[in-house]
Amino acid sequence: MRTQVAIIGAGPAGLMLSHLLARDGIMSIVLESRTRQAIEETIRAGVLEQGTVDLLHELKLADRMEQIGERHGGIEFRFRGRGHRIPMRDLTGGNEVMIYAQHEVIKDLVAARVQQGGEIVFGVSDVQLHDLDTDRPRVSFRRSPEAPTEFIACDFIAGCDGFHGPSRSSIPENVRTEYHKTFPMGWLGILVEAPPSSEELIYCNHDRGFALVSTRSPEVQRMYIQVDAQDDIANWPDERIWSELRSRLATEDGWAPIEGPIIQKSIVGMRSFVCSPMQYGRLFLAGDAAHIVPPTGAKGLNLAVSDARVLAAAIGEFYQDSRTDLLARYSQICLRRVWKAERFSNFMTQLLHRFPEHSAFDREIQLAELDYMTSSVHGLSTIAENYVGLPIEWGT
Ligand code: FAD
Ligand code: DHB
């Protein structure tokens, strides 16, 4: 097989890249280890930045998002039993976020690619990368564990295979630096059959730990609570989850979440991770393959999309003008935005969670920081600007 760009992974990064390349007339093949059904059913993120929303419009992939998604112009921070609204739309000259589940984005991107005749091979195994430091790299794979090995010859390989995929480790250890931070807490996330408890997302700091109220539709809600990173979901019967949500989210004026049957629950760990550089020879990493953020800033999916944008522009420039300037600067352009998202996600995580090592002094400082951030126009603006999404900076 031969193509221009071999894309490993059909997550937001890989699928968005295949669409952006197709728009410029550049061929790609996407290799995905899971089934189409599995990727369309995995419950993950839910917040799309303004730039992600705009890009989906530009690519004419926004119809279902506009039907099912919800635009939010503000979020609430809740602490000491009181809510404080952050009016993002007003503070950013009209920017908003869209609450639209990641697996719905995946469904839209896959359906449109398949309809356009784009090639996505699902259920592949044994994906390996070869000849990265030549201008004819190759990817080998099997269509099933028993099938023979096939090769794709290409000009570029996009490693969009998430944190555990094989791409990153194909960059020799002596040319990459990895930055890690693991948090001592995890998020227990639930999907609930109930009407929305709130018109906007609520990020809540409480003595018992963080809680988040989000939404999926008028009928299904998404909520999270901070738990220990090592905790087991078996320790969390539904009533215990509701009891924590009620305690943490309670306000002076008697607010309580609307309860209903819990239809899905799981615990995810929280880490920060950056691999630098994000490229080696003809291999370019995008999304979780190169970086992870803790979910508090709602940035993971959005970073995957902005990497795909930069990579598509760089590859587009190569084919159109035979230039490699943007390709050479790919990592540098992406990492500038990645580190700012790491910074914001770290800041939100520190601001909103309870940390086992915090002293009474640290706790008061955290509450004072929340008070400052929600009462100063500068504090409010900095949160708003980062939450709706920073621009990509293309210059040097
Ligand atoms: P992925 O979505 O991980 O896609 C990578 C794809 O590559 C996958 O489909 C995988 O099957 C495929 N792949 C892996 N290995 C191979 C291989 N060997 N061969 C072929 N294909 C391969 N972010 C938020 O902002 N908010 C959240 O609430 C949130 N919750 C999350 C919950 C979980 C459990 C996880 C894992 C992540 C969560 N994230 C969240 C992060 C967000 O979902 C990711 O940042 C986003 O999915 C990154 O997109 P991606 O395309 O880079 O990677
Ligand atoms: C959701 C996830 C996040 O990580 C976040 O910060 C806000 C909302 C969600 O799944 O809806």
TrEMBL record:
GO MF, one example: oxidoreductase activity, acting on paired donors, with incorporation or reduction of molecular oxygen, NAD(P)H as one donor, and incorporation of one atom of oxygen
**InterPro entries reported in the protein's UniProt record:** FAD-bd, FAD/NAD-bd_sf, RIFMO-like
Q: Where are the transmembrane segments?
A: none
Query: What's one Pfam family the UniProt record gives for this protein?
Result: FAD_binding_3
Q: Which organism is it from?
A: Alicyclobacillus hesperidum
Domain of life (superkingdom) = Bacteria
Keywords per UniProt: FAD, Flavoprotein
Protein name as it appears in the record: 4-hydroxybenzoate 3-monooxygenase
Annotated ranges, domain FAD-binding: 2-345
